[in-house]
Design goal:
There is one protein chain. The chain is α+β, with helices and mostly antiparallel strands. Helices cover 52% and strands 23% of the residues. The chain is built from 10 helices and 17 strands. The strands form 4 sheets. It has a 5-stranded antiparallel sheet. Strands 7-6-10-9-8 form a 5-stranded antiparallel sheet. Strands 12-14-15-17-16 form a 5-stranded mixed sheet, covered by helices on one side. Strand 14 and strand 15 form a beta hairpin. It starts with a helix and ends with a strand. The model has no long low-confidence stretch (mean pLDDT 79).
Amino acid sequence: MKFLREIKNHWFFFNVSVFLILLFFAIDYLIANRITDVTKDLTGQVMRQRLISQKNTLTSLLDELDAYAIHARSVLDSAARPDDKEILSKLAMVSEFSLAHDNIVSSWAYVRDVQTGTKKIFSQFSETDSESQVLNLISHVGLHTDTLVSEIVRDQDSIFERKILIKEILPDKVLVFGYDIDLIGFWKKYSYRYPTASGYDVLFDESGICLFHPESKYIGQRLDSYFKEVTSDQVFHRARELEKEPFPSLQKLLSTQVLSEFLALDVIRYYDVLNAASERQIIHVISFPVEINKQESILSVKRYFYWISGLTLLTFIVILGLSRLQLKNEFNRNLLYEREKEQLKLMNEQYQRENAVLQLKRLKKVINPHFLFNTLNSLVILIDSNPVLSQDFVLKLSEVYRYLLKDPEKNLITLKEEIDFLETYIFLQQVRFKSSLKVSISNENHRDSTHIFIPFLALETLVENAIKHNQITKKSPLYIDVTVEAEQIVVSNNYNPRIEKETESHQIGLDYLKNVYNYYGDSFRTEIADSKFICYLPLLPK
């Protein structure tokens, strides 16, 4: 009972520990999810701020490049006579100042008169540019125009965006102002001044020509892959819808998830519009790698999760250590208990064996004088009445005592030897009791009795007890049946007990058999049923 209580206490402790660990993991899971959600919101805000920052930066840089054309237009618009020398001198100064910008490589100002031809106000071209290209452009400029246009010009390995201001200053007289922006140089300057690790920007003009791309080979080309799922008209339409929101959320912008031709990774592209000071609209596409966003979203969660996991592991180790310590103590106590139990079992077996041997010796001592007295009385009577039978009687008596002198190993004898001895013993008893004693021996299963073992003197003890403790007369004979079954021997006799008190040998014989069978872990039992006294002797291994 004490051991069962200890097991119950241990299981209670173990169940409580498991419950606490599961509760801890449940809380950990809820907190981790909450932190992840908050982190994703913060990451979305960071990406939104990144988009706004990049948009403002690019707008500022584009306005910086457009500023010279805008200034030139304001000079012409504010003049009373756009063709006077002072205005033209200012225009030449603006053109000259534009060359101070790192990314403007060529600048010019010309007046085209239908009557007199083209007159230069100011011009300076890069080594790769040709003035003839500009003059050819001016010769095809139509009259009655007043606009600022941009076009992409390729010259060997360079790509330029050409800004052209066409202003009608007098009838049949047009002023043409312009400059070339080195888009490759602009890309290098921007990439150096504003490096980014979380995404990249791409710019397109209204016609879909790429003005800016982190991979310079795409600059000046039409990249239709950017407008397969989202068209430029859709981008401009969405921009008009969001004009009242200067800083719209990412969810309101048009977006797609595609494989980036630049990073060779899945990216999310957000489409927006830059409104330059020159009143032209530039499509701004910013791409964020999906995996990088995931990494940024769970970065802080991982940090908290590592702390929580470490605390969980430490808690589990402590609980496991305490449980292990308790289990070890219980195991040691149980082991000590089992050892003590085993020692007691061995001591008990040794005691039973020694007791069986002592009782066998005592049984032999009781059998010898008692049996000898009865057989000698029978022999005296037999010598006078039947000399021949008396000779057999003496031989059988000698066999009985020769058998009694045996000291078998482990107090076991083969069934055949015990039955042979029993038949000899019955012969002597039947000489004494004649027809009043009837004994039958049968082997129902026809088992080989030479390999079956029973306790030494087991059958003789039971037959002798039946003779001693039952009335044996001609009117009331004693019937003894010895039956060999598959797993046991059944010895039964009709139950007709004597009136006098049982002798001591009866108790000695039965105690002897009980001790032998207890030693071998089997049970010897007796019962009285159907007016019979029945004994059950299990067959034993050697």
